[in-house]
Structure formats: C-alpha cells, structure tokens
Amino acid sequence: LLLILMGVGIFVGLGAGSLISIRLGQKDKAGAELILGNALSLVIILVLLTTAVSLWFLDPLLLFLGATPEVMPYARDFSLIILGGSIFMHVSFGMKNLIRAQGDPHTALKTMLIAALLNAALNPMFIFGFDMGIKGSAWATVVAQIVATVWVLVYFIKGTGMMQLKVSNLRLQRKIFTEISRIGMAPFLLQIGAGMVMVVLNFNLLAYGGGLAVAATGARLQAGRRARNA
Q1: What is the reported pLDDT for 208?
Q2: What is the pLDDT of residue 227?
Q3: Distance (Å, rounded) from C-alpha 116 to C-alpha 104?
Q4: What is the value of pTM for the model shown?
Q5: What is the pLDDT of residues 16-42, one digit of tens each?
C-alpha cells in the first residue's frame, strides 16, 4: 500500500524536479519558484484524493493486497494511522527531490536521514515502551515524517537554497501540471508496477508460507529500502 501511495510523491517530485533544474539552468529563478509552489499544491491535492479513496475502500483494498483474516486487524490499524498522516510522508518525499534538483544533495540526504533515524528510534519506544503494538510502529513513521516535512518547508520558506516558497506561487496552473505529468508519469507507473509485484509476491507467500512469511519478507524489504534511501 505504501509503495503505491509513494507513487504520488515520485510523480510530483521527479516531474517538478526535472523542470526546476531546467529553469535554474536557464537562470529563471522566478519560473523555478513558480514550479516549486505548484508542486507543493499538486502533491497535497493528489495525496488528499488518494487518501480519501483508500480510506473509503480500505478493507477491500487490504484484501486485494493480500491481507488474510488473521492479519486484517493489524493491517487495518496500521493503515488507518499511516493513511491519516500520509500527507506528511508525501510532502517530505516529493519536496526532497526538489531540494536535490536545485543542486543541494546534502540537505536532501539530511531530510532522508532525519526521517529514517527518527523512525528507527521511535519504533521500539512506541511499540514496546508505550506498549502500542502495531499502532506504535505506524505512529513512529508518521511522527518522523511530520518532523521531516517541517524541516523541508522551513528550508524553502526561509529561502535557504536557491529558491523560496511563496504563497503567490501556490495557485495551480494547468500548463505546469501538464509538464509535470509528462515527466513524472513514467516513474509513477514504475512505482505502481513495483506495488503490483508486491501484491503477487504476497499471495504466493501466503500460499506457501502463510502470514509469517509475508511479515518476514515485508520487514526485510522495508529494511533494504531504508538502507538504500540512506
């Protein structure tokens, strides 16, 4: 589910990031800042829409993704919290690509490390220290992404890098949306494809190894994904 939802951040982040790099290469700072504002508005709109649809059809969606009756209560508890805070995840993920696009990979790396390390530290605290179980893991992820989102927004609002986030640029323009879509659609579809591969893998794991095999594989893939991001 997260792989599929992350496609929204990839769609906007990579699409807008490429456009921003072109504008900055042309010395068009105002044009780059316009794309920055439009990208933030677009990712918020898309995340709200996908989150609303996912929450409305949550149980059928979880069943489609491979949740068994024994796993369903945990999957539902985790997904409700994650979906409720998904806007922070996708804003930080999408805007991180825009930081990198303006030639500041060190700050983009700091953004990933803040989220990853804070998530790793909060997980055992919430799960075991506060005895929250699977809900603690979800809350740890959401809190880590909230901190990363605040970090990214403060970075752009203060204009620390080459661009500054301005309220006047938040109004979405059709031309910019079209340009972002042309570039971001390919990586978005690749991400959706990766999510569908996970669906097929889950059903095969359930058939031959049961719920424990799904949980073990999910933990391994999540650990690998965090290592790659770092």
Answers
A1: 83
A2: 53
A3: 19
A4: 0.85
A5: 999 999 999 999 999 999 999 999 999
